[in-house]
Amino acid sequence: MLTSLQIENYAIIRSLEIYFQEGLSVITGETGAGKSILMGALSLILGNRADTDVLFDKSRKCIVEATFHIQDLPLKSWFEQNDLDYQDDTIIRREINEHGKSRAFINDTPVNLTVLKSIATQLVDIHSQHQTLMLQNADFRLRLLDQFAQNQNLISQYQEVLHSWKKQKKTLEELRAKCAEAAIRHDYNTFTIEELEKASLQPDEQSQIEMQIKELTNAETIKSHLYNATALLSEQEGDNILYMLKSAQSECRALSNLGGDYDLFLQRMDNLLAEAQDLSYEMSKKSDNVEINPQLLEQLNERLDLLFTLQNKYHVEDNEALIALLEQLRLEVETYTDEKEQLIELEKTVNQAEKEVRALAKRLTESRGKAIPALANAMEERLRKLGMNDSRFTVELAQTEELRDNGADTATFLFTANSGVAPADMSKIASGGEMSRIMLCLKSIITDTMFLPTIIFDEIDTGISGETASKVGQMMQTLAEKHQVIAITHLPQIAVRGSQHYLVYKQISDNQTTTNIKLLTMPEREQMIATMMSGENCNESALATAREMLKATKINQKQ
Fold first, then answer.
1. Model confidence pTM above 0.70
2. Residue 529: Cβ-neighbour burial (10 angstroms; 0-12, 13-18, 19+)
3. I want to staple 407 with a disulfide (CB 3.0 to 4.6 A). Which of 79, 364, 399, 515 is the partner?
4. Residues ≥6 apart with Cβ < 8 Å to 291
């Protein structure tokens, strides 16, 4: 429950502090006294945005601080999940400096607005006359129906499966697009692979063919030069190299017995002669192997032309690049085959997940349908208590093909305030006063089935009076038996129902108007109730009536 609210330097509030208790607390005050300002300050605690316009003194920061007693609330896990220190009396503080920069704290630990809103929605529920517009929101109507039907676990289960299905569906769509693109390339890749495989490409083949072609093209010249070279290296007597080298070797051998350089000359001559003999043999052998083969030359040129044609066709530089391309395309075809198999399996998984989602959506529809008669009875009973004796209320469910976060239903609230008139879409026919009472009845019903410690009603009594106002107050008082309720009102019939009565008022000091609030004593309360009924010039009769009203509602207590 909200135990205290401290406000510093907000709008026309210089400084005030309010302490709240259990039960029903009513807040009254003249129009313009600052009740809405009070709610504006509280909205900062709940995570609403603000700027420097809220500063009373532009040179100082604004501070709004609220203390909540949460010992009996299931919030310890929330604090653990958000890495915050848990305290039975948790303090939420919001600061806005002179530059409009905002900071939020939970138990003195800085938090962002998302975390602030997360805890605030679990501590306070504000219901204002403007909130009746939410009844025109389809999602809001479904949330109310689900709250009454206690579908929270089913909704969580449905949403978990739904989000998993949507994630799988997205993956499936991406894989389909990828496979579709790959399918376009698949035929081309297959043809290319067949063409390259038919070519029987080999590493280093191109350089070897080019060398062979060069040799075959110059075969006659090569054989002629090799013949001449080997003839010059002949060992026969005459002007040839080997004969002369052997003669030189004999001369060196004659000097080798002298040792030293002479022996070294012989060794070198031996090596030179051996190398010349080996060279002669190799050149002779090469000359024998060089063939003049026009047919082979033609075949090699055709093979080289094929390689060049393939290289130009597939925009690569050499034979090795063609081989690399072939391996790449083989991998793409293999990947495409694997992805097609994955696609088939994923389609089965997605279809099964959709069946599970639709089955859960159907369970939601059935649960909602079963809850509608009980909700209608509960609503009509409460509406009769508020003076709407001939009213009828029901909910019309319609199914949609689309699976949304809240299922596959749309809910329309049907209402009529008149006997003999068929219920119609409430958002189109209900007046503002009727909408406020309908919303109050809905709140009173769903709060019986939900965890919500503090409910704030902000002038939802607009458009009602007399006996109806008294019944609205009675309903708020009943709600306050299970929840802390704070009601901002201008009706005495509601004000007398409060366990505590606070007055918001303006005062002028140093030519500045400020808003303040105080808890009324019983005499002050009697005077205020009388004033609310008869105006500023209330008489003893009005005071007596105020006392009787307070006594009748059993609110008379020592202050």
1. no
2. buried
3. 364
4. 216, 219
92 strand-pairing partners:
66, 106
CA–CA dist 41, 44 (Å, integer)? 5
What's at 30, amino acid-wise?
A: E
State whether residue 91 is helix, strand or coil: strand
User: How many angstroms separate the CA atoms of 149 and 143, rounded?
Assistant: 10
Average of pLDDT values for 501-509? 91
At which residue do the structure tokens 């945005």 appear?
49
The token duo for 391 is: 């009213």
Sign of the alpha-carbon torsion through 545, 549, 550, 551: positive
DSSP annotation of 521: P
Question: In 388-491, which ranges are continuous DSSP H helix?
Answer: 426-429, 432-446, 466-479
With contact defined as beta carbons under 8 Å apart, do 266 and 235 qualify?
no
- More confident call, 440 vs 368: 368
Q: 466 exposed, middle or buried (CB, 10 Å; 0-12, 13-18, 19+)?
A: exposed
* C-alpha to C-alpha distance for 474 and 471, rounded to whole angstroms: 5
Which residues, in sequence order, are CB contacts of 482 under 8 Å at separation 6+? Answer: 447, 448
Helical axes 319-385 vs 294-313, angle rounded to 10°: 20
Token reading at 321:
């690049």
